[in-house]
# Entry
Amino acid sequence: MITCDICKARPAQFLQHHAKRRVCKTCFENDILSRVKDTIKRFNMISEGDKVLVAVSGGKDSLTLLDILANLMDNNKIVALSIVEGISGYNREEDVALVRHITRMHGIDHLVVTLKDIIGYGVDDFMHAQQKLKVRSPLSACTFCGIARRRVMNSIAREIGATKIATGHNLDDEVQTYIINILRGDIVRLIQSHPLSAPHAPSLIKRIKPLRYVYEYETTIYAYIKGFHFQDTECPYINQRPTLRAKIRSMLIEIESKAPGTLLNLITYLDTVIEPLVLKYQKESITLPQCTKCGEPTSPKRTVCKFCTLVDLILQASRVGKDG
Ligand SMILES: [Zn+2]
Ligand SMILES: [Zn+2]
# Structure
């Protein structure tokens, strides 16, 4: 029997490549919990009095996040949110049922909403609209989905008095985001993706990513240990995922496999060197303009926000054929 490298007592069950050690189930769980706890503390993600809305997709990352926060926080201060995107063949009852199982186990409130209920349209509606309008270079489903989900999360958070929105982005996701922004030379986004950056409008609720220092392979192990039979059907729009992110993802996987621990080193390094920029940028306190249609904050130099532009496409499509 190979014993755990941490407790030196129980049998080792999992290999943590990045730390070059074999660990037992208990030590693995404790390691993840303490790493998330440290991340929350290091970036002041959750303070006393905060109410946290946890966006749960039904995938392994968000289920892991929900379970970890339930173990670390007062469960009355957590609300889980499932957003049904309106993608036919993808949104399954079982995914919501699994989230419900976890929330009941911990006594956490669980809200289920559909994009259609809240904003009037789902992802399929948007894709059909672009087809109908024969848009020459159509936007990806992920673009609409991302913007619509963020809008819904923010408005529900405001409605229920949540002061933070937590999402299940893991270490791999966050390093990819940093690299994309660096390659694009997008300093504004680079700073915004730092965990200490503050939202630029009072109506925007701060988003936090407590799994920022947990590898994707570790969330898979965690979900497996907990017996979460998470959603493994791929979104039918997966081939529309941004290609740059996919390329960077496979590049990073290759680097990590040759030199385990690289991604963890990289995010630790980038979080440290970008921090002074965040603090400087924060002082300049940019106030975002308001969208003339919906009144929500929009990007500098825009009069109508991206969300309203996308919804307008759907409205245009619905008029096609009616006008003659
Ligand atoms: Zn152990
Ligand atoms: Zn708008």
The first helix runs from residue 25 to 42. The longest strand covers residues 78-84.
